[in-house]
DNA sequence: CTGAAAGCGCTTACAG
DNA sequence: CTGAAAGCGCTTACAG
């Protein structure tokens, strides 16, 4: 690998000068500068970024720890974040949940000396979160939040759950199934809380056999949909805790020969792009105009560029907490009144 | 940031010993080892990866330069690659096409001293490809290939184009529209070649007003679908050069009140997961059982672990070229015989 | 088994 | 404007 020393030798100057034309070109005389530039080109020189970040204070890199790309919601937000950050001159190191534990990611992230971190897959009581706060570098939680005071941008999920549930109640549904991932994740916990509250307010009791908290992916959701519809008294509507699962359920329901919405209504959360597709037409609650990923990146970069704060006790730092209002998009999948 | 020196001080040993418990734990006496381990924990020490990679020969990191996540095909393959690599103990640095030019990526990748590179978005005559070959580190092209001799894994796209076209011809179609991205990309070029050939073999001429090479994303495809169907003599079938575009077209066609397949047939390439969804049922040619992303990662890691070759002239290196046979999945979107 | 020392490739005061 | 030198945090022969 060609180093700045090689360039210096060819250009007939010192290694320091080579470094200067890279970092502060005006400070070197034009003719030496061109000599160095030519030598670089001739040798196809690329500065070693590891060496640079070892000495520099900023890596101009942020880390994104994202939920799995199998969920289109995370594919969309990853795209948003990476694109936005690139526009601001930051490189994004992307990690995905399935690669290993949050802990491993944190280790890596810490080792790479990134300028900031965005995390979309913390658990509500995640023990590694403390570690994140103690790193002392800017971070933003995104989509999911931690129980303790923290920086985050997320939807008002409880409101979203209520909104969706009341819509189904309005359409005459009483036997509503609810498929969710584990409630140790804020998104799932809060959406469920909204559902429960809306049911209670309508003085309806929740049929426990219609509720499942172990549907963590599309396949599980499909199996459960199948089971639900085999019940002696099947639900008339199914809420899935995200659109990815809801769309998978739709597939299962149609495969069973059921018609949506006349035999079962179906609804999800997030309002991913596909939900509004003419062939899908899934009722969902979310915010497509509000670019959550971008917003997270924007605030993170603002924190980075504001520099370290003067507070001696970091726990006194004010938090950035952005909770945005959900919007209900009623589509064909719930358009049948019973 | 706490360094190994700090740990050494607390543990009462030299920095070298701290390094040893990290890299070669058996070589240090158990009691000193625990002392060091405790000190690390107490200080929440994480080795600086930049420093490590500066001196180590392997970073256990590969780079992936992927097409945009807006196309689900790339989301799927990124997921495959990252997961597979993690299973083999490699970290993946992911770059997306939209972040900047291939050149910038290459620079970054080079600077980070990754052990290998997977690229899914080279152009057929990409000038930066030479740079990639000259890096002298293992690489794999994936999905798209370069015109010159190179390592790649890709579908036999010309065969795929032929397969799909003949199917439509069998169904009685003569006025087939073809929506594609620019032919400076191997995938597009070859699929088109397969189409043209199949048409020629059937002694049919291609109606030029039905062919577009400027549909590079879903939105463009939708606009073109709209235009096509306004023609005095609209096509009876539309081929989109990938499923992402085809599914977007489906949306547009349904929005126009057209029925698929009875008024227009529709087909795509890649056979992404959604294509087989009951609500979509898109005919497509691809290979879902063959995990192309995984395969690329597997071969790349094999090359990395085989170590540098002894050949003096790298251009004499044998290439790994995997071209897999496409399979046609006939679904509802083309099931109407005219 | 462990320490002192060299070196990975850079940046950045410090002199001149 | 430019060079010599220190140092970023690590790993790894080399002695002992």
UniProtKB/TrEMBL annotation, chains A, B:
Molecular-function GO terms, alphabetical: DNA-binding transcription factor activity; transcription cis-regulatory region binding
CDD domains for the chain: HTH_LacI, PBP1_LacI_sugar_binding-like
Highest taxon listed in the record's lineage: Bacteria
Gene3D superfamilies given in the database record: 3.40.50.2300, lambda repressor-like DNA-binding domains
Keywords, comma-separated and alphabetical: DNA-binding, Transcription, Transcription regulation
UniProt domain HTH lacI-type: residue ranges: 2-56
Cited Pfam families: LacI, Peripla_BP_3
Stated name of the protein: LacI family transcriptional regulator
């Amino acid at each position: 690998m060609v180093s700045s020393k090689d360039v210096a030798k060819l250009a007939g100057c010192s290694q320091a000068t080579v470094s200067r034309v890279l970092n502060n070109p005006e400070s070197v005389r034009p003719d030496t500068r061109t000599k160095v530039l030519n030598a670089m080109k001739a040798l196809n020189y690329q500065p070693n970024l590891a060496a640079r970040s070892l000495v520099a204070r900023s890596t101009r890199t942020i880390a994104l720890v994202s939920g799995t790309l199998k969920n289109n919601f995370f594919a969309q937000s990853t795209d948003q974040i990476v694109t936005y950050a690139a526009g601001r001159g930051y490189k994004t190191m992307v990690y995905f949940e399935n690669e290993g534990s949050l802990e491993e990611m944190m280790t890596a992230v810490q080792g790479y000396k990134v300028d900031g971190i965005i995390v979309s897959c913390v658990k509500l009581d995640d023990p590694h979160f403390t570690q994140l706060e103690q790193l002392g570098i800017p971070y933003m939680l995104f989509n999911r939040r931690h129980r303790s005071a923290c920086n985050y941008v997320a939807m008002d999920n409880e409101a979203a759950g209520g909104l969706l549930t009341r819509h189904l109640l309005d359409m005459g549904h009483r036997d509503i199934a609810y498929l969710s991932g584990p409630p140790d994740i804020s998104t799932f916990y809060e959406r469920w809380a909204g559902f429960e509250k809306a049911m209670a307010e309508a003085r309806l009791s929740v049929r426990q056999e219609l509720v499942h908290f172990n549907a963590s992916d599309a396949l599980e959701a499909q199996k459960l949909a199948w089971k639900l519809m085999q019940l002696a008294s099947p639900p008339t509507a199914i809420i899935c805790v995200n659109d990815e699962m809801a769309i998978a359920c739709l597939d299962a329901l149609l495969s069973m020969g059921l018609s949506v919405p006349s035999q079962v209504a179906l609804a999800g959360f997030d309002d991913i792009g596909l939900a509004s597709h003419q062939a899908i037409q899934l009722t969902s609650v979310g915010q497509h105009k509000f670019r959550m990923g971008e917003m997270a990146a924007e605030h993170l970069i603002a924190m980075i560029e504001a520099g370290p704060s003067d507070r001696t006790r970091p726990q006194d730092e004010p938090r950035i907490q952005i909770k945005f209002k959900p919007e209900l998009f009623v589509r064909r999948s719930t358009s049948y009144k019973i």
